[in-house]
Amino acid sequence: MRQTAVAVDECPTWAHRNSGHQWNAFLDATTRWIPFGGAETNPDEFDVINDSVKAPKIFRHTFSFQEDFAPKNIANRDIPPIFRQKNRIDVTSEYVNTSDITIALDNSIELNNDILYLAVFNADQWKIVSWASINDGNATFKQMGNNNIVYLPVFYRDNKIIPAAPPFILTPKEKTPIIPNLSEKEYVSLKYYNKFYDIEWHIGRPKTGWKMELFYWDNQWISCGTQVVKADRVLTFKAPTDGLYLIRSYNFANTWQRIFTIENGEQVWF
């Protein structure tokens, strides 16, 4: 009987919904890693990673520590929890299309950090998924998932995330910054629902009389005001154009809310 190695692979943080996911992979006779769902699916049935999911980073658990997995010579409180366990290697490119991207930091930013991080929006907060060293004001991130994912460059100090640059959308073709036009505001009418695996997701759909609030991102979530849901469930706000937006409710938990942009009057969900 041939013996083989089996590992745990993981996307710690999805970029299109809450949480993350773990699965298994085994090493076949050609030294290729084959994923499968332990106690769930066979290798030929594996569908955790598909065209609908947004995986910014995928790591493989290893037996030994990987000294280059986490930033070096930094106090533990300045290292995000995701990188405090060093028995990981980056295998993102084995599963999804990736891009190497360079972030140029504005000269006005106080650069008393040697490390820049990238975060994605997950469960109503930004969660760090990758790091890179800063050299001459630039940081280059390797093998980033590029399936139409919104990333936010951040610093991490004293267990806190600090925005460092505007968010951007990464696709196989380009990196597009999302910068609100604060000098130009217009009324936008929004149909309130979320997108989940490319399906309109009506869980938590607001009821008539509920109060909702729209925010845009400019180094923090800034309110555009509140609206009370009417019978047609259309919400109208005056907001800066070209921004990244988030709707929150006063009547139910917001942890499943997704971020979006507005293109030609329509919400584009991320």
UniProtKB/TrEMBL annotation:
Protein name in UniProt: Uncharacterized protein
